[in-house]
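Recap from last week: sequence in, structure out.
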Amino acid sequence: MKKNLLSRLLIVSIAAAILVALSLPVSHLVATVVRDQDSLESVLADYADDVSRLNAIRVQEIWAVPDSPDDAELQLVELLARARRDQLPVSIAGARHSMGAHTIAPDGIIINMLPFNEMSLSEDGDVLTVQAGALWSDVIPFLDRHGRSVAIMQSDSSFSVGGTLSVNAHGWQAKRPPISSSVKSFRLLLADGSILRCSREENAELFSLVLGGYGLFGIILEAELWTVPNEWYEVERYSVPAERFAEVFREQVDGDEAVEMAFGRLRVTPKSFLEDAVLTVYRKTSQVSEPLPALTESALDPLRRVIFRGSVESDYGKRLRWNLETTFGEKVGGDFVSRNQLLNTDVSLYANRVEEQTDIIHEYFVPPNQLEAFLMLAREIIPRHSTDLLNITLRDVREDNDTYLRYADQNALAVVMLFSQSRTEVAEASMREMTRELIDASQSVGGRYYLPYRPHATEEQFLQAYPQAEEFVELKRAYDPGTLFSNQFYDKYLSWLGVDE
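Predicted structure tokens:
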């Protein structure tokens, strides 16, 4: 009898301990849901901004391109003629996910390309023809119905095709250069109103300048992109010390032809800060005989969001997220997944909704054998500043031989950082100082930084990372002698190059 009583007491004690242990994460997640209410305010009339919500700038006009191809091209030519006559600068916008006013020309005209979004597929399915305003979230379901998939794109589907080409984005497709390598050709509207087809064989110089050219040479109307099959992938995860990540990546990814996609994640908790990593690898598999599934929204998405947003300004939230991700994985549950399901993730799943804060991305490209050297510097730099690091993802980027203003001048690991930042002058000053220190760190190990984000780099840092910028500007002035196409990125980093003082 006494033994049974002790057994029951032990069971009750264990159950109570479990409930106590669960109460903290439950209360944390409930508190996160309460805080995570949309309080974002609209941009003032006559102003434009981007996803950073730190670039509110007065503009003359936001002009939406017609969705009819014939009307759109005719009216775009007329719009450029009017802008030249009235001496108004023109910038080009899609989803506006760059963060340095790359889509905004102060006191100018912004062309909203999003309505221009038609697409078609070649008979053999190899080539997608798509207008520049289409979002990847439209492209993926279209290709999915034909058994095809995007060859290279960012990790989320909320961006426009034209915007992706203009920043020459890379993805987490393993052993691949940036998206420029998947472009067969595009049609370009120049400042003088003429339209050219650009490819590696035809108008090759413009092909190189426009991809990764931030809308400074003309308007991409439509592009031909090579596609790949949509296939089943098997998922495997490897927990490794961060100092061994590059080595394990080389073993598991470079040495395996079946690997199609891969990414790493670093621990951002104060304890063991940037010292632990998880590598997630997706391999082609023949183990699944079932047909590929239709695209669906994951029932786990709301939980993923609350876990992620719960890491903002919370050491406990960061530990909880790391423990869950290292145990269960971050992208999609299960051991097998289709390529298109992986790509079909909307950025709103994780995006900030609080008016007083914003999420800011940094990205640095470092030689794989210098990753640990860069992380050693980052471990010292980041904690010194009043910034809240939410996430670091590691991605594989191979050498880019297509674009002029290239960042991938060698094989590299991309270190993608996401910070939560208050929208105050003090926070912005702290972010600026930290960014410059991180840029110095990346350059000290032979790396570079990426241009679509906050314009905190000094002019000297920019020229060190992109020494081809002076020739880039000379060619810009040759193709666009009146500087019709402009934006704040151009004003800060390029407009003064080659100008006698």
